[in-house]
Amino acid sequence: MLFVYRTPFGPLTIRPQSNGRWILCIRDEALGSYHSPAAAADDVYCQVTGDYDFDDWDHDDIPGGIDEWERYSR
Hints:
- It is built from 2 helices and 5 strands.
- By secondary structure, it is α+β, with helices and mostly antiparallel strands.
- Strand 1 and strand 2 form a beta hairpin.
């Protein structure tokens, strides 16, 4: 499963890692490793991803949970 949220800074993706964790990326740059996709989506919603441009973005329509992200099967 791959989760995608499209932003003006490039797509944010959450995808599984081989160790059972989930990785949050923007423009294929890793931002963090999480125990679940929901935990990664929460950091996106709170704008604490570590990507300065995204975290500083003044936008009111960031998905509130992983259920609001696009989903793709691998």
